[in-house]
Amino acid sequence: MNHSIDDISNLVRLLNSESTENFQLAIQIAKGMDLPKTFYQGLTKTKYSCWLCLNEELMAPLQEMTTLDFSFMGIKSLPDQLGQLKQLQTLKLDYHRLKQLPEVVSQLTRLETLELFYGMLHSLPASLVQLTQLKHLDLRQNRLMTLPEVLWQMPQLKTIQLTGNLLTVEQIQALQEALPQTNILY
């Protein structure tokens, strides 16, 4: 379908608006249009616009992203669409409100860095073992009382940051023995 210059310029105005409602309306309109990828480039400039695209299932602007930073957004849940971002290598969710890490994160098989600093995590899913490229895992300042068994199955990890959790010295030492090549910070 061909769109007029007025259609496109109106859509751009909505996307550039400071209003959340206008931005969401523009996303809904854009989903119904067959627009080139270059049109969406501006939508990934802020973490807020990326979050809205993800939640509104407008995936085109996010498909090629290798880093997503949703830090300081107080995220309580992650949409299932996150698993579609197969190019993602770094996911930053610092200062989140997640009590457990959703399984969808395990679908991000190219992920190398996962930052979950300062949150409410009590546990990690066993499916995290599917992240075979993961090298850096930041779990500082969460509410982990036990170390997830999945960590013992992830020898590719270069660093695990565990400072500020409710872990015992014995738990940390056991992990250090199991993963001698991993730099474990506590």
UniProtKB/TrEMBL annotation:
<dbReference type="InterPro" id="IPR032675">
    <property type="entry name" value="LRR_dom_sf"/>
</dbReference>
<dbReference type="InterPro" id="IPR050216">
    <property type="entry name" value="LRR_domain-containing"/>
</dbReference>
<keyword id="KW-0433">Leucine-rich repeat</keyword>
<keyword id="KW-0677">Repeat</keyword>
<dbReference type="Pfam" id="PF13855">
    <property type="entry name" value="LRR_8"/>
</dbReference>
<dbReference type="InterPro" id="IPR003591">
    <property type="entry name" value="Leu-rich_rpt_typical-subtyp"/>
</dbReference>
<protein>
    <submittedName>
        <fullName>Leucine-rich repeat containing protein</fullName>
    </submittedName>
</protein>
<dbReference type="GO" id="GO:0005737">
    <property type="term" value="C:cytoplasm"/>
</dbReference>
<dbReference type="InterPro" id="IPR001611">
    <property type="entry name" value="Leu-rich_rpt"/>
</dbReference>
